[in-house]
Amino acid sequence: MASRQQKKILNQEELENRLLHGLSCEWERALWVLEPSYQKKMRPPLFSLRDVADRWGSWQGQKREIYLSRNLVLNHSWGSVREVLLHEIAHQLADEVLGARNQPPHGSLFLKACHLLRANPRASGNYKTLDERISQEVSSPEDRILLRTKKLMALAESPNQHEAEAAMAKAHNLIAKYNLDLLGREGKRDFISILVGPPALRHFTEDYLLAHLLQDFYFVQAIWVSSYVPEKRKMGRALELSGTIQNVKMAGYVYDFVKRFVDSKWAEYNKDKGLTRHRLTDFAAGIIEGFRSKLESQQKELDPHGGSVALMRAQDPLLKEYLAYRHPHTAMVKTGVGRQDGKVRKDGKEIGKNLVISKGVMEGARRRGLQLMG
């Protein structure tokens, strides 16, 4: 019988083998955006993990190998891993297809490769990972808005339901006014994309409802993208949110908050009932519907004629331009609706109407959403 230490080693080896397989799958996925002539010239490289401290990854042209930092792959979100991997694939494309072997490492052909692959040309060396850039505190006017929102959400923890509701409404009004002002400014805006929630082969109805809620009320665009599922050793899908860093942080926080709220309320509701996973979907969908009705009511108070706020969400031209470049080929995803339990859904909806997004202790970015509140 294997000792505990041997099992730990085997588990570590198995985990790393799965992650290496994931890098290979992500490499194949990354090529879909290229023209067919470029795709045909790209050959799969070797992949490895290394204990390196001075960089997140590297393309080794002579060995035809892409290696990534073991620390990066094991201790950061998959979104951060994908960003670095795409950067190294751009080095491979530049070297083997565009003819950049005699150019400086980050020369013009490498920059062209980054543009073709939608890769970040800076995601190497000691450049901050996606996780670190999202969580860092800076002092721009936009981040001061986030800090004010944070204070309002702290007030939303009040045991007085009326005070909590009022604080959350003020926080949402502040976010809406910030975005209306942002849309009126001229000049370039920086957008970012993150993955929220674990990738999976199958997502449930409530996952799609939550994605639409975030898109409709938190000034982000939500797209389901291909992403590796380590436990299944297959490519599945994950939810990607895109927008300004402030909006993405807020939407990521709300995603995680709602998920935890549903889990907590379901544990209470189903304590002595023994209901199935299908009923959890009914319950969760009801909570999200109830919360949506509350947000719609707040929006009408802010914008009684239903004009500027809704229009701004639908017609942010710079965000649309960013997404058109990032995802040039998108398709609608249709989800089936099975048999529902109306009572369970109604019970969930009543609970959702009382949901208040407040300052709370959340997980970090690795498994689910992002930590917004310090």
Could you please describe the fold and organization of this structure?
The chain has 14 helices and 6 strands. By secondary structure, it is mainly alpha-helical. The chain folds into 2 domains: 4-134, 2-Layer Sandwich (Zincin-like); 141-352, no CATH class. The strands form 2 sheets. The chain has a 3-stranded mixed sheet with strand order 1-3-2. A hairpin with a 4-residue loop joins strand 2 and strand 3 (65-69). Helix 4 crosses helix 5 (108-117), helix 7 packs antiparallel against helix 8 (161-184) and helix 11 crosses helix 14 (342-352). The chain is globular, with a radius of gyration of 22 Å.
Core attributes:
374 residues; Zincin-like; three-stranded mixed beta sheet; three-stranded antiparallel beta sheet; 14 helices; 6 strands
